[in-house]
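re: ur question from earlier - yeah i can do the single chain one, its not a big deal. heres the input i used so u can compare w yours
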Amino acid sequence: MSHTPIDRSLVSDQVFQALCDSILAGSYGPGESLPTQRQLAADFGVNLAPVREAIKRLEQLRLVEVRQGDAMRVRNWRSNGGLDMVGHVIFGAAGMHRPTLCAVMEARAAMLAEVARLAADRRTDEHSQRLQELAGQIAGAESPQAAQALDFAFFTEMIGAAGNVVYMLIMNTLRDLYFAHSELFIAMFEDHEQSAPLYSAASEAIAAGAGPAAAGQVAELAELQAGRLQDALA
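and the output i got, formated as tokens:
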């Protein structure tokens, strides 16, 4: 397929995004060869350096496989991709992909409920105190934006209390996506005064070592937030 020449600013980023969007849209199917780097450079109207940088990023995402002496071949991102693919799938050239966004919210709810259960088993007094402080701050937040930042801090602290490094790495991966599109997720916090008691109840259950209760409160909170987001997008 042909590509439209692009602006010279942030050239490698633009080349990467164009190729990423083409692969995710199915313009290049799994196993199919990409054009050579020289051909891509000619198509985009750029030199080879930004094309090489873009290809490296595609390799890191496991979207393409590059072998010496062989063509650059597209990989099946559903079979080979990692969590860092989520943002590219949701916010592609075709617009927001709602099914993937719903899947993220579903996975978020399940993960946070389990994290709450673990936090109740493993928390320290310091964790408990910090969670209760954050819950109180959410109740008194002056704006949805303030509540949004406190929400992330609350769940980051909860994951710290759970002591599970994999959940922490997942949270780190989602952080950039979350704040890069904070305006999309702000709907989850428009009525944060109503959901504030759930943070407090969760923090109290964690402090008391009541894992099932903590998981239940967090699951209810996550479901409420997902519902608000869906209503805003409807």
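The chain has two domains: 11-81, 97-233. not sure if urs matches, ping me
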